[in-house]
Amino acid sequence: MSARTLLAVPITRATPPLAEQVRAAQQAGADLIELRVDCIGDVDAVADLLARPHALPFILTVRSSAEGGAWDAGEAERIALIARLGLAQPGYVDVELAAWDRSASVRREIGLVAGSGGQAGPPSRLILSHHDPHGTPGDLDAVFDRVCATPADVVKVVFTARDATDGWRILAQLQHHSRGRPVIALAMGDAGLLTRILAARFGGFLTFAALEHGAESAPGQLTVRELIEHYRWRDIGPDTRVYGVVGWPVAHSRSPLVHNAAMSAEQIDGVYVPMPVAPDYRDFAAFMDYVAGRPELGIAGLSVTIPHKEHALRWLTERGFSISDLARRAGAVNTFTRTAPAAWAGDNTDIAGAIAALDAVLAADPDPLRDRQVAVLGAGGAARAVTVGVLDRGGRVTVFNRTPQRAQVLAHELRCAWKPWEQRVGTDADVVVNCTSVGMHPGEGASPLAPEVLQPGQVVFDAVYNPPQTRLLRDARRCGCRVVSGVDMFIGQAAAQFRLWHARCAPTATMRSALTPGERG
Ligand code: NAP
Fold it and tell me: 435 CB under 6 A from ligand 1?
């Protein structure tokens, strides 16, 4: 279907008064209102609302508990209630396919108030729906074929996504079936978020978004404001290119805010969404194989975060795709770019981000890192990126890590020095970089170095960006050190991804204010 995808706001509570909630939803941008009578409870208030003139159509829903709803009285009463409220001509009436299939009397009762009966038929349109609160079945073809064979005006299928692969499988079905008829295909849970945002990209009849947190009608629903302001809902269409962050978990990632704000500022037809993929390599490879083999899904680039950066390198290597030299040396890929319908390239923009952040503070020097002594605290992904970048610019690195074996392996692979963690306190390096998670939210009170060991003039760089001002950076400033924040590295790596994907300079000021709205540059 080529019509614009509608935004439906569910009403799930009796207070504030229903008419007030409808007005608020309309002002927020709703095209449709779903009245979840099973959650609202106050049937008289619903009947009263339906009896009044209304500017927006309603979807009348009394969801059964078997399909995730709150209705716990009898089935016959439920159908009778739908039929009674349906007489008020809400616009749409939603009935579960299971109930519809089960009984001829349900079909007769509901058929009196909703269905595509032509001019003489009932005035409301019939939505036949199927909800799976437990998972997403392996054979989606069978479910979609079954619902699409019904006489419904609109078919609705909602599953629970285990990870982003399920979300993409549902979207692929939506893309296929929405060409012929109005289809709603969504997934619940954090992993289903992409289906709610990308419904507009793949021709969905509607998506749902709540008026506010706490008013959701299903797990994983965004608010209308988040959908419109953070995820560019009004700009998404069939040609929109899709980007996203692959990790586990990714619900709290700030990357969607940063990349969506940047694309919006540059008027790029793109949207960036979270794609949670379970931690094993097998899950990651299954996800990548699924999306890489389907260029019609429109995925143009992916950020990769914990725990998949090493998996990304392995997948690209096994599939024979190209990998930048620096990413290969760091042993990690944090950026995928689709370079042709069947080709991907891997890069590590954490390296560029770290070096750009250091360059900015050492700018006076024409070759700022050459022969500088750099102490890297930590031996994880961030430490590898910083070490590769510094070595590449002629600096000398010593790695200090809590687990000495990891420091030793890193130093051996990247050809630099290492020392036991305890010896970090005696370092007189020109530059100290914290690449451990010490000081990261929720452990804001901690610092990997006591203030006494910091020296005036030293450069102190904290890769931690949440919070933007860490205890280490505050201590360093007090000691007269020059400081580099993890926010600079984060913006630097996102800006490098932006350049790779969009072949133009990134609007870094916009990105920064999206990442840290309260901070001054
Ligand atoms: P990672 O691979 O999990 O490595 C974590 C490192 O922290 C390890 O070296 C670990 O030591 C060390 N560590 C953890 N707790 C410690 C403690 N209590 N005392 C001493 N060392 C401790 O994580 P990562 O990806 O490298 O990330 C590290 C930090 O950098 C995170 O805060 C992350 O948000 C940040 N980061 C920032 C950016 C950016 O763009 N600004 C990019 C990437 C990462 P062991 O080996 O002994 O466990």
Answer: yes
Q: Ligand 1 centroid to 379 CA: how many Å?
A: 7
Atom 46 of ligand 1, residue of closest alpha carbon: 403
Question: Which residues have C-beta within 8 Å of that of residue 122, sequence separation ≥ 6?
Answer: 86, 111, 112, 113, 114, 115
- Token pair, residue 481, equals 């050190």
Distance CA 253, CA 263 (A): 17
**Tally of CB atoms within 10 A around 285:** 16
Instruction: Return all residues near 433 (Cβ < 8 A) that are at least 6 apart.
Output: 354, 374, 375, 376, 377, 383, 386, 461, 462, 463
pLDDT at 385 over 60: yes
Cα–Cα distance for residue pair 517/197, rounded to 1 Å: 23
Q: What are the tens digits of pLDDT across the range 394-428?
A: 999 999 999 999 999 999 999 999 999 999 998 88
| Atom of ligand 1 at shortest range from CA of 403 | 47
Over 70: is that where the pLDDT of 2 sits?
no
* Ligand 1 contact via 406 beta carbon (within 6 Å): yes
User: Does the global pTM surpass 0.85?
Assistant: yes
- Asked whether 380 lines ligand 1 (CB < 6 A), one says yes
Residues with catalytic roles:
131, 156, 309, 350
Question: What is the C-alpha to C-alpha distance for residues 178 and 8, in angstroms, rounded to an integer?
Answer: 18
Alpha helices in 340-470 (DSSP H): 349-361, 381-392, 404-414
Joined tokens for residue 338: 């689709």
Nearest to 451, CA basis, from 484, 413, 425, 485: 425
Distance (Å, whole) CA 419 – CA 399: 6
- Ligand 1, atom 2: closest residue by C-alpha: 380
Dihedral Cα 3, 138, 241, 220, nearest 10 deg: 80
Tokens of 339: 């370079």
Cα-to-centroid distance, 333 and ligand 1 (Å):
16
Phi and psi torsions of 171, nearest 5°: -65, -35
Q: How far apart are CA 110 and CA 66, in angstroms?
A: 19
Q: If you search the block for the tokens 């969504």, which residue do you land on?
A: 186
